[in-house]
Amino acid sequence: MLIKHLVIIGVGLIGGSLARRLRQEKVVQRITGVGRGKANLEKAVELGVIDAWTHSVSEAISDADMVVICVPMGAYATVFQGMANTLAEHAVVTDAGSTKQYAIDLAEKHLPKSAQFVAGHPIAGTEHSGVEASFSSLYQDHYCLITPTSSNSDKAVSAVKDMWKHTGAKVICMPPDEHDLLLASVSHLPHLAAYALVNAVRKSALDAKQPFQFAAGGFRDFTRIASSSPQMWCDIAQSNQAALLQKMDALIAEMQAMRQNIADGNVQALYDDFTQAKQARDLWLAEHGEKH
Amino acid sequence: MLIKHLVIIGVGLIGGSLARRLRQEKVVQRITGVGRGKANLEKAVELGVIDAWTHSVSEAISDADMVVICVPMGAYATVFQGMANTLAEHAVVTDAGSTKQYAIDLAEKHLPKSAQFVAGHPIAGTEHSGVEASFSSLYQDHYCLITPTSSNSDKAVSAVKDMWKHTGAKVICMPPDEHDLLLASVSHLPHLAAYALVNAVRKSALDAKQPFQFAAGGFRDFTRIASSSPQMWCDIAQSNQAALLQKMDALIAEMQAMRQNIADGNVQALYDDFTQAKQARDLWLAEHGEKH
Q: pLDDT, tens digit, for every residue of B68-112?
């Protein structure tokens, strides 16, 4: 595999780490970065992450073989619109966003019928952002989920899979709706629950001054993700609406059942619930937790 | 202050750390430990944490000046029953449990009318247990909440406050019901929510195989407390029922409002919610989070 001209739209932690690794693996000839922040793009050239940069999506992609969208999902519509007129026939487009059906719908709306958009989602990240935070082993041993549709050619799907395999990621294909439900469960729902919990506690200041003052370590860990970017989570809540509503209903039902067991003094049911949760969590930690 | 004979019921992390510190501060003459596990009690003597031990609560406390209950709350009734006949007139009894009105009610039920039970709650702990995990600085700079009632003498309340001040804790008095609501918010509710979340995700295996497989670091932190002891949390759920029901209703309402905002595409409301949670959480972390 050799990508002659790779275009990375959004040269931050995600896009920068992909570029670094593909370059290290010698599977790319030339990389162009697209973004809004001049300082970050210049830094990316200085660091050797990209060869050149531009602010213009349409200009950058006109002779691209592979285009990877690594911007927040709220910017997807603008990016696809910028591609519509200059995307080459043979070019393959992919992305790294957290929800997939939404991305596929936007690509269908804005890109030419012949365009090959193969949606993807590498499950990796750190709390840092920007090209200076990027590193070539970010994806090593992490999952990368690819969600092809019937509109995708085998060749385009293979190109995207091969690219991610070169990053050291474990590449898995699944339908977009399955991906969106799965991520709603294990990622989006926990984030929303953390926000809801902090807000519930914040409002409890009415019956006891400064409730946070007495919070301990468990509270810190539980709510760490409530310090995430509100804008990013608004984007995700919008772009994965259907799956998230389903999962929020499941969590609300779970909490209502627990509430009823507490109200009824149904200790055995509580004990079983807590035990099953603990076992599932301990098993996950033993099998998958260490590497995160 | 000098405690001539201190009795610690339950010589684990909590009781052992208290004994170590009081001994270090030279404010106690003699310490007797009470417990069920012979090996742990012998270890406590070997480590110099206690001077002697017995399995019998009634025997141990017969000439005690201060008695500190450091057992799981599910064992309180048995402990109070064991005290009823041999507690000295001048003795002061306190505890270290997570809910306070429940402890006060049990003491009133089982102890003689003249007995002075001053309930307390040092907010400290580690993930380890047993006397070998105990250390003298466990309480240093942590809060210790004392919840006196109108039945308590000033002398008894002062004795308990003074004892905890010698551990380096920041001692604060508040009414038992306020304590229970406060802890329901910042400690009990997060634990129950973590259990509910893991169970909701576990059950989502129906629509996607092995959902946990794709969980990342945020999930690990958010659910760490779901690996806590199911028995301990059953005890707490029972012993703080009223406050917990109120707080669970608040969290469920918060999640339902968020769900509605997602369903309605009310992005501004979501953004404001997320931002307020993030600000409250970041502020807490800056002011209080580091030391936990």
A: 999 999 999 999 999 999 999 999 999 999 999 999 999 999 999
Same domain? B164 vs B191: no
pLDDT of A292: 44
pLDDT of residue B281: 85
CA distance A113 to chain B (A): 29
Q: Please tell me which residue of chain B has the smallest CA distance to A255.
A: B196
Listed residue (A123, A124, A117) closest to A148, CA to CA: A117
Measured between alpha carbons, how far is B55 from B41 in angstroms, rounded to an integer? 9
Q: Is A286 near chain B, with CB under 8 Å?
A: no
Q: For chain B, what is the mean pLDDT?
A: 92
CB pairs under 8 A between A and B: 301
B33 shares its domain with B146:
yes
Regarding whether A116 and A44 lie in a shared domain, the answer is yes
For residue A133, the tally of other CB atoms under 10 A from its CB is 16
Where is average pLDDT lowest: A139-153, A232-246, B38-52, B216-230?
B216-230
CB contact under 8 A, A190 and B223: yes
> Do B95 and B223 belong to one domain?
no
- Regions of chain B with pLDDT less than 50: 291-292
CA separation for the pair A181, A188 (Å, rounded)? 10
Three-state DSSP class for residue A242: helix
Q: Which residue of B has its CA nearest to A278?
A: B227
Task: Count the domains in chain B.
Answer: 2
Domain encompassing residue A159: 3-174
Q: Is A242 an interface residue toward B (CB < 8 Å)?
A: no
Query: Band of the pLDDT at A210, cuts 50, 70, 90?
Result: low
What was the pLDDT predicted at B292? 44
Residues from chain A that touch B222, judged by Cβ atoms under 8 A, are 190, 193-194, 221-222, 224-225
Please name the residue of chain A whose CA is at the shortest distance from the CA of residue B74: A267
Q: How far is CA B275 from the centre of its chain?
A: 31
The CA distances from residue A254 to A259, A263, B251, in Å, are: 9, 14, 12
Same domain, A75 and A117: yes
Q: What's the gap in Å between the CA of B12 and the closest CA on chain A?
A: 20
Each residue of B260-291: b (16+ CB within 10 Å) or e?
A: ebbeeeebebbbebbebbbebbeebbeebbee
**Do A219 and B277 contact (CB within 8 A), yes or no?**
no
pLDDT at residue B126, rounded to an integer? 78
φ, ψ of residue A54 to 5 degrees: the values are -155, 160
Nearest Cβ partner of A197 from B208, B251, B288? B251
Q: Does the ipTM surpass 0.95?
A: no
